[in-house]
Amino acid sequence: MTPYLEVHVTAGTREEAEKICGAAVRGRAAACAQIVGPISSVYWREGKVQRDEEFLILMKTGKDRLDDLIALVKAEHSYETPEIVAIPIEGGLADYLTWIKAETAESPSVG
Q1: 7-56: pLDDT as tens digits
Q2: How far apart are CA 15 and CA 18, in angstroms?
Q3: What domains can you pick out in the chain, each with its CATH number?
């Protein structure tokens, strides 16, 4: 199994997305985070179809940091049940993948 993940999270506002991204990267739970949007979301909630504008957050992390990233997102997020899904990164530039691992180390070797 791959040791690298891309974690998808949605947020209701750009400000909330920026707050989550900053906390995740500062806390080294994610090596980087991008905000995409606004996006249109259609989903079931409370027995009916809902439509909202949201912002998609894409974060890269190591599998060993996923639990920390989930806890951090839940603490920072306004949703009762936020979308937090992890997708394995099956391949990529070796130097980039090594960078993800280095930047999400609990005791990083470089600043």
Answers
A1: 999 999 999 999 999 999 999 999 999 999 999 999 999 999 999 999 99
A2: 5
A3: 4-103 (3.30.70.120)
Residues 6+ apart with CB under 8 A from 69: 7, 24, 29, 30, 59, 61, 84
Separation in Å, CA 108 to CA 31, 76, 97, 102? 11, 23, 15, 6
Report the C-alpha gap between 31 and 58 in whole angstroms: 11
pLDDT tens per residue, range 48-92: 999 999 999 999 999 999 999 999 999 999 999 999 999 999 999
Q: Is the preceding peptide bond at 38 cis, omega within 30 degrees of 0?
A: yes
Maximum pairwise Cα distance, the chain = 49
pTM for this entry: 0.91
- 3 state DSSP class of 35: strand
Q: Are 62 and 100 in contact (CB under 8 A)?
A: yes
| Beta pairing class for 4-11 and 32-45 | unpaired
Distance CA 104, CA 101 (A): 5
